[in-house]
Amino acid sequence: MQSTMNQPPHFRRAAGRPGGAAPDPAQIRCMFGAIARRYDRTNTVLSAGVHHGWRRALVRWSGAAPGMRVLDCATGTGDLALAFRRVVGPAGRVAAVDFCPEMLARAPAKARRQGLDIQFALGDVLALPYGAGCFDMASIAFGIRNVSDPVRGLAEMSRVVRPGGAVLVLEFGQVALPVLRRLFEGCARRLLPRLGGWLTGNRAAYEYLERSRAAMPCGADFVELLRQTGRLEHPEYRALTGGIAYLYRGRVAYP
Ligand SMILES: C[S@@+](CC[C@H](N)C(=O)[O-])C[C@H]1O[C@@H](n2cnc3c(N)ncnc32)[C@H](O)[C@@H]1O
């Protein structure tokens, strides 16, 4: 077990995936299980706290309002679900799923401490345990690049959202300005695995983060994945912090 957890996830061939390679779900689950205890603190150190602002930007851009029903997918330790819960208020509802028990186990205590009620459940983005059209919106933050078939994941998210509702994605991208990109990528390649390894004891997880970040399509290329679901209309995107991260939004088509 230990040896698997400290190996970066293998990529296997996958026809539907950009770049033709997909992370192995069992290894992804195991890798997040191994870093769960230190995940929040490591995020805060590696992003200098900026990651909270990115999630707040997603919630603002989503158009979430009191009374809405929201599903947060690949919720991890639940930060995006908590941010939505504050906005939808007592008349709204937030559910959140993740397939890694160790990550998810940390979320309910956070919600309790903040006096927020969220229905957390173990579940796979590729087979969500909800009926069609149950939610006004579904979100995923830093999760879609870990899903073995991102287009299928986005299509499954759109299945559980009512027509006219939104699917929202927050994901790492590539810095837009070439000079800054070279600088950022050089630092990310050298520092992320070292710092992440030092903070969590699992350097392989942060080597994987850097590799998967660099390989993930972003901007207009990611919008193409939203289109490929055949269910999401009016896709839009916004770069955050110069393109270190991106927000994406698509509207679920009426039948
Ligand atoms: C980088 S963490 C992001 C967690 C959280 N959304 C955040 O913003 O911090 C990625 C999460 O995706 C989850 N994940 C990856 N693939 C998944 C899948 N197919 N179904 C459900 N969860 C998945 C992992 O277990 C992990 O908790």
Concise synopsis of the structure shown:
With 255 residues, this protein is α/β, with parallel strands linked by helices. The protein has a single domain (2-252), classed as 3-Layer(aba) Sandwich (Rossmann fold). It has helices at 2-5, 25-35, 39-46, 50-62, 79-88, 101-104, 107-113, 150-159, 178-200, 203-215, 220-228; strands spanning 11-13, 21-23, 69-73, 93-98, 119-122, 135-141, 161-172, 232-240, 245-252.
How does this structure look, described?
This protein has eleven helices and nine strands. With 255 residues, the chain is of the alpha/beta class. A seven-stranded mixed sheet has the order 5-4-3-6-7-9-8, with helices on both faces. A two-stranded antiparallel ribbon has the order 1-2. Mean pLDDT is 90; it is low at 1-5 and 10-16. The structure holds S-adenosylmethionine.
